[in-house]
Amino acid sequence: MPPVVSNAGPLIALAKLNLLDILSKLYGRVHIPLAVYEEAVIAGMQRGYEDAFRLFSFLIDVGWEPEKVTAIPQDLIASGLDKGEKESIALALEKGALLLIDEEEGREQARKRGLKVRGTLGILVEAYRHELLTSEQLRSYFQQIEEDEEIWISSRLCHRVLREVLGE
Fold first, then answer.
1. Could you give the C-alpha distances from 40 to 9, 14, 29, 32, 64, in angstroms and in order?
2. What's the CATH class of domain 4-119?
């Protein structure tokens, strides 16, 4: 299995859904850049977000420590992406990894550089295909994503993916 690197979006969404364990079940280990950790855990805990505390506990339990990223390609530095997205793409390039990322511009920048990307919905679909989730659970989690204003994934995308996966 190739290495896996995650940006903040999927980590936050899965923490909100209380599904972080799916990451270790699917991928064994996920590499997390320091800027992503600072955004999703440190800043989130400072703001009192429950999902940030959940993510912090999960990372301690599985022993995944944030990784310092120093080699960021110059064209990536010049892009309009945030620090976490830049570090995620750079670390995925360095490791030849699958990149977990939701943000569309980040996905586009990663694909331009030859990276494979998967977002929160793709992670849930993969979990369903590996029989870690039932079709009822998949529908329920997609509905929760649609209803949670702090998870920025469109309802239209949720419906389209569910139709493709479950034939609905």
1. 8, 12, 18, 10, 14
2. alpha beta
